[in-house]
Specification:
Strand content: under 5%
Order of helices and strands: HHHHHHHH
Radius of gyration: 18 Å
CATH architecture: Orthogonal Bundle
Shape: elongated
CATH class: Mainly Alpha
Number of strands: 0
Length: 153
Amino acid sequence: MAARAGVAKSTIYRHWRDKLALIEDALATLHESEAPDIATGAPRERLERLLLHVTHILSHSLFSACLPAMIEAAERDERLRRFHHEFQAAARQPLVDLLREGRATGDFPARIDPELAALALLGALFFQRLMTPSPYPADKVSQLLDTVLGHPC
């Protein structure tokens, strides 16, 4: 890793205690710098904005390129697996909160389970990225929302 970056390992470890700390920092920085604004707008608009962001990340980012290797490595490394699960749970939480809010305000059907709906929405995007030759098309996000949540109220 250090050789590919053109620096000595000692330089890397001066900043991060190990590879996992480097991964944690890189993903946190990426997540913070690219997070969409979901503070304004109707719940469905905000939800669509968030899902469009995820489709973009899964098709045009370094995270997307690293995702298969991260999943594979997490199968072998307990610390990485724990980090990966915790990171993904934290990254998923704004979506769950938005679904919960929309259900409470009546913008989304009362029948939806926010946790399950979040998994269904993200599951479609991640499955498409990892198990098919092309990422989920951004122009289909609205249709995905209709399928999982129903048509707008």
